[in-house]
Design goal:
This protein is α/β, with parallel strands linked by helices. The chain has nine helices and nine strands. It folds into two domains: 39 residues, no CATH class; 185 residues, 2-enoyl-CoA Hydratase, Chain A, domain 1, CATH 3.90.226. α2 crosses α9 and α4 packs parallel to α7.
């Protein structure tokens, strides 16, 4: 921990050069304050926003639903989604899945492998029934997915949220979620910017080049400009909504899923 800093210290230089460390500051009233410096607050702000959405889902659903936000369509976000799937859904009747403000990536198919599950059989553990012939129908919802599936799978009802700031692979996810009938989509139409691109390094700089177009199989529409993912329920969050402590899109998603569960 650094020594106390006088009033003439260049605080900007200090904080910039000691990011991630604990710094002891002595205030004008001679009290000491310990701060941990950071070069960016973006991740902390994001985590605070996710926590606030989770609390709103808890409030709106009276504790009946869980909540997961997918930050990006990349490996770290997918791994976090897998970890949170069981935790957020534990003891809940369903899960709200949020891809608002998701900038895209490539993991939609992995997410579909988790969410788009059809149970093809049911199993009965040894000793769970006295008469299998008479009692087997009571176990129709039982299957050892966690033993058999490569990835974690979800068997609870879900609803998904997207908005105009859902881009690229987050839009592909929204199209797939809706068109495969996994659940209802709530929010605003996605941006409409879906295309696969690569790139080449130049002697000075870098140039990107599209190499694959994406079309919606169900409608035949081009996801680039022609066909943003349009929610089943269109809901706008009015200007200044963030300061109100409420979220109309999230509230609608909760209502839709609770109605489905009923």
């Amino acid at each position: 921990m650094d020594k106390p800093i006088g009033k003439n210290t260049n605080f900007y230089s200090l904080l910039k050069n000691s990011k991630g460390e604990e710094v002891l500051l002595t205030k004008s009233d001679a009290t000491d304050v310990v701060v941990r410096t950071s070069s960016s607050l973006r991740t902390l702000q994001y985590e605070a926003w996710v926590a606030s959405r989770s609390e709103l889902v808890k409030k709106y659903s009276k504790g009946q639903l869980g909540y997961i936000h997918i930050r990006g369509m990349n490996a770290p976000s997918f791994e976090r989604f897998e970890r949170e799937l069981k935790a957020s859904g534990y003891g809940k009747k369903g899960i709200v899945i949020d891809v608002r403000y998701n900038g895209g990536g490539w993991t939609t198919d992995r997410l579909m492998a988790v969410l788009n599950i059809d149970q093809h059989a049911y199993t009965i553990p040894r000793g769970a029934a006295d008469d299998l012939q008479k009692e087997n129908k009571k176990f129709q919802g039982n299957y050892p997915f966690n033993e058999r599936a490569i990835l974690s799978v979800n068997t609870k009802p879900t609803v998904a949220l997207c908005n105009e700031n859902s881009y690229s692979n987050a839009e592909i996810f929204s199209h797939a979620y809706k068109n495969l009938g996994i659940g209802k989509l709530v929010g605003q139409p996605t941006f409409g910017a879906v295309i696969s691109t690569g790139g080449y390094s130049l002697s000075k700089g870098y140039v990107r080049m599209p190499f694959r177009a994406w079309y919606v199989k169900k409608s035949g529409l081009n996801m680039e400009n022609d066909a943003p993912a349009v929610p089943d329920y269109l809901v706008k969050n009015t200007p200044g909504w963030g300061a109100t402590g409420e979220d109309a899109q999230l509230k609608k998603a909760v209502d839709v899923l609770l109605q489905q569960i009923k």
